[in-house]
Structures are given as structure tokens and as C-alpha cells.
Design a protein that fits this description.
The structure is a homodimer of 256-residue chains. Chain A has helices spanning 18-28, 76-87, 108-111, 113-123, 146-159, 224-229, 248-252, and strands at 6-10, 32-38, 57-60, 68-72, 94-101, 128-133, 165-171, 182-184, 190-200, 206-216, 233-239. With 256 residues, chain A is of the alpha/beta class. The radius of gyration of chain A is 19 Å and the shape is globular.
């Protein structure tokens, strides 16, 4: 582990969210911290990048602390790209994203702006972790997660991660109960069953709001959803190679 | 294969793009076609979904043909959700996305709106294919790809795909040369090295455009990039389980 590791902090709830402020305070104890995060909430942005419009990025001072901070008009993935190629004077030793207000377990990893920032760092070959707490409220209590955030970050700094692998860490919302421990998991098979809420605008034109219900389709006790439901912190290693290697042999037998 | 399969067609270049018009014409020969696609270009949208704003979806007639069409203000992933839960009266037998104007091979699969639509269908348990041609121009010649698009779609309709697996199909741009064949591949390891183009707006404030260079980091001859560079159509099976299963055992040995 470098003596004074350089840590990039970002998120998808926006730079003023209590979740990222907690993450900054924990990282300030570990290394040299640069924050480069979206200027507005970016939940559900998936791995979007900004191709058709301009991006602003300004140095700001939002609160006391050793960290240096930048506020960016781009997506979480843009923020990581901007930090690495424009703002930082050396490659960061670690990228951390979050702490997200709400779950990124299971299939949510695919829609998550928080995880897209971590995955972007993984694409760049930099160890990265996305952190999320299963509490959507702005005033969620992040105090109980600090110690495990610190431990997991220190582990990654010391041991590294394989090329193209990042960690997806979710904390259950247990109020004041202590976590039962940290559990290494696989991503649960699940989906969202959409319920579009159809309304009519003042001009008489129909429009929709996207809403949905989370449906677990997996009873395994080795999944992140199981761990979280049972009071554990879930850690899923996530990789950027989306190839379904197990299906290549079968596909080779198809006749085109 | 159902006698008259129901096929949902979408894309990320917008409903009027020549790529999707080609895809519609091929699918009209195979089954009953419903088009539900973005009303404007959505390239680089990744797996974004619309949580904080409203979505419009209107029935339209854009050209002659058997297809029924809807134009939607949402992202490609929104379009698939909207079609399945609001518009279609039964589950589609196949979802096809594209034909994208430009490559979605290698790491581009993660940024791709085209592939996010196919992946969204995979999450819903519906067989799906994303098609892309390595030609970014609006007036790209899609004529040479039609026969293989048809063959691959018919194969998927007949044989199905495993749960949570979709296909990422890319066509090289060979002008009038015939393709060398269809090759089943894995996703090449590569990334984009960003070069932010920094400018100053009329008010004197700096802003950026995101640009970049594609860097291949993989010399394997079993990758999609290799296949495309050598005149083959690449087919990569892509799955929605992002777990890095190979790293779970090592992670279990870490001490937290």
C-alpha cells in the first residue's frame, strides 16, 4: 500500500449528498483525497456518458477538510474520465463511489450511476469500490457503515483487485443493530416489474412515470439479496467482461 | 418457433435512423413487428432509465409497412420497459435493437444504448439481439447486413437463448466486399483513452467536450475486435450476471 494513497471520490447522488460527505470523511483518514462528483443527482444513469453536450467542471469548497473538490455537470462515468485524464496529476490508487442513498444490490448494479463510476475506474485498470446503504432518505444515518467502509478500502489498497474487477458493497439498514458481518456474494437474479403510472398533462396529452416493484427470482443463500435480508454487509466482485463464456461452445454449434 | 412471432424493435439512434428502418424491413418478413424507439438519438446512454422526469409515448406512422410504431421520449431501456408493460398485449418472442450506426464491440457494450435495450430484454427473460454496423455515418449502407441479420434472428427464434443471455452482433464495414463469415467471440479487453477538448464559452467560462481514442489491450484471436478487423461478423453472448465468480474464493480469504 502506498504511504499516502491518492483516492478519487465520486457518486451519483450529487456532490452535496450526505452519503458522499461521509465517504470523504472516512477517506481523509486513509489518504490524499480528490473529490470529483456530479453537480446534481444522477440516479438511474447507468453507464451513460456525455457525447452530445458540453461538460463543466469547477473547483469548489463545500466544507472544511483536507480534500480537494470539483463539481462536474457530467454523469458519474464522465466524472471518473474527467478526473483521470484532466484533473489528477497522477493515477489514483483507489476510486470509491457513493455512499449511495439506496440499494445497488442484485440487478440494480446495471442501472446504477454509483456502480458505473466504479466500473469506469475498473475499465481504466484502477481498483474501485461502490458503496451503498439500503436507505433512500437524504438524512439516512451513515454512522454505522464508516468502520466497514474503512476496512474494505484498506483491504483493497493493500491487496489490489484483479484486472477489470471492482467491488459492489451494500449495507443493510438495521437502524441501531450491528451488522452480522461482511459476506462475499454473487449478484442475485431479480428484476423490476414496471408499473407505468399514466397521467394526463394540462394540455390533455398522456404521459408516464416509471415505477416498479423489485422481484427476487433467486432463493440462493450465496446472493447479495440474501445477505442483506439477513443483516450482513454484501460484497459482490463485479467484472467488466460481459461475455457469457459458458454459452460460447453451444453458439459455435449453431448453423448460420 | 411460434408461427407468427411477435418482435419488438428498438434502437438508440432514434426511430427515424436508417439502421432501425432496415431492421424493421427485415423483421417484417419474419413476424409481427412492433417498433417502440426513442424520438431522438440516445448514443452513449448506457443503461440509463428515466426516474426523475416524465415519459411520453405516441403511436406514429413514419412509413409504409406492416409494423406498428411508437415514438418514446425515454432511453432505450425505458423503451423496452414501456413496450413490455404498457403497449404490447403479449410478451414478445424476440427483442431486436439497432442496427446501430457505429461499433458496439469490446468495451463499447458497456456504454451502448443499443445493447442496453437488448440487456433490458434479457433481464425480463426475453431472447434479444443488438445489431451494430461499424459505420457511424447516417447514410451507412445497411444492404450487405440484411441476410445475416435475418439468419441470426431466425436462429434465436428457433433455438432460444439461456436465461439472462443476449447477443451482441457487430458487422465490419467492408464496402462491397462480402463478409468472411460469422464468428462467435468473447468481448475484447480494451478501453478509451479520453482526450477532453477544453474550450472557453462566450462568457469566459471553461468547458469540455469528451473525445477519446480506442485502445485495444488484447491480442487474442477469439475476440470481437479481431473478428471485425479480419472481415468477420462478430457474435458475442453477453450476460446480465456481472459477478466475477472467479474472484469469490480469493475474496473469502481476505480478513475484514
Amino acid at each position: 500500500m502506498p504511504e499516502k494513497p491518492l483516492i478519487l471520490v465520486t457518486n451519483d447522488d450529487g456532490i452535496t449528498a450526505p452519503g458522499i460527505r461521509t465517504l470523504i470523511s472516512v477517506m481523509n483518514e486513509i489518504g490524499e483525497v480528490v473529490v470529483l462528483a456530479p453537480d446534481s443527482p444522477q440516479s438511474g444513469m447507468g453507464h451513460a456518458i456525455t457525447l452530445d453536450s458540453t461538460i463543466y467542471c469547477d473547483k469548489v469548497t463545500l466544507e472544511e477538510g483536507k480534500q480537494v473538490e470539483y463539481r462536474c455537470s457530467g454523469t458519474p462515468a464522465d466524472c471518473v474520465k474527467m478526473a483521470i485524464s484532466e484533473v489528477l496529476d497522477r493515477r489514483p490508487d483507489l476510486v470509491v463511489s457513493g455512499i449511495n442513498h439506496g440499494s445497488n444490490s442484485s440487478i440494480n448494479v446495471i442501472y446504477s450511476g454509483t456502480m458505473s463510476a466504479a466500473i469506469e475506474a475498473g475499465i481504466e485498470g484502477i481498483p474501485a469500490i461502490g458503496f451503498s446503504l439500503l436507505d433512500y432518505s437524504w438524512n439516512a444515518n451513515f454512522e454505522p457503515v464508516k468502520e466497514d467502509v474503512r476496512k474494505i478500502a484498506l483491504n483493497v489498497l493493500e491487496r489490489g483487485l484483479p484486472d477489470g474487477v471492482v467491488l459492489n458493497v451494500n449495507f443493510p439498514n438495521l437502524d441501531d443493530e450491528p451488522f452480522k458481518g461482511i459476506k462475499i456474494c454473487r449478484q442475485a437474479r431479480a428484476n423490476w416489474v414496471e408499473e407505468f403510472d399514466k397521467r394526463t398533462n394540462p394540455q390533455g396529452k398522456p404521459y408516464y412515470w416509471l415505477t416498479g416493484k423489485f422481484v427476487k427470482m433467486d432463493n440462493g443463500e450465496d446472493t447479495d439479496v440474501w445477505a442483506l435480508e439477513n443483516g450482513y454487509v454484501s460484497v459482490v466482485p463485479v467484472h467488466i467482461d460481459l461475455t457469457a463464456h459458458h454459452f460460447i461452445q453451444t453458439l459455435n454449434s449453431w448453423e448460420f
